[in-house]
Amino acid sequence: MTDSSLPSQINIGQGARGIIGQTVIGATIVEQQLLITPEAIELNPFQARSPYKALKRFDVDDSEYFFGRYQLTRELQATLETCNLILVLGASGSGKSSVVRAKLIPEFLAAGSHRHDFVFTPQDDPFRSLYESLIGRDKVGPDKNYCFSEFQAQFVLEGKPKGKPDMLANVVSQLKDKGTEWLIFIDQFEELFTRCTNLEQRKNFIKSITQIAESADRSVKIVLAMRADFLGEFSPYPQFGKLVQRQIHLVNEMPADELELAIKGPAAKHGVCFEPGLAKEIIADVQGQAGSLPLMQYTLDRLWDYEVSLDKLADRTLNTQNYQALGKVRGALEQHVNEIYGAFSTVEQQATKRIFLSLVKVFTTEGVEKRVSQSVVRSQLQGEAVQETIDRLINENLLVSSSKNLSQAALPMKNGNALEQQATIEIAHEILLTSWTKLQEWIEEAQATLLVKSRLVEDMGRWHEQKQTNQELLKSSVLAKVLELKEKHLFELQSVPLSAEEEAYIDASQKFQKQELNRARRVALGASIGAVLMAGAALFSVYQVRQSQRQRVEQLAATAQALAANQPVNAAVNAIAAKGLSQSVFVRFPDYPAFNFVQGSLLDVNWNNREQNQLQGHEAGVMSVAFSSDGERIVSGSSDKTMRLWDAKTGASIGQPFKGHEDGISSVAFSPDGRRIVSGSSDKTVRLWDAKTGASIGQPFKGHEKGVSSVAFSPDGERIVSGGEDNTVRLWDTKTGAQIGQPFKGHGIVMSVAFSPDGRRIVSGGWDNTVRLWDAKTGAQIGQPFKGHESNNMFGLVDQGLNKSTISGR
Question: Which pTM was predicted?
Answer without folding.
Answer: 0.59
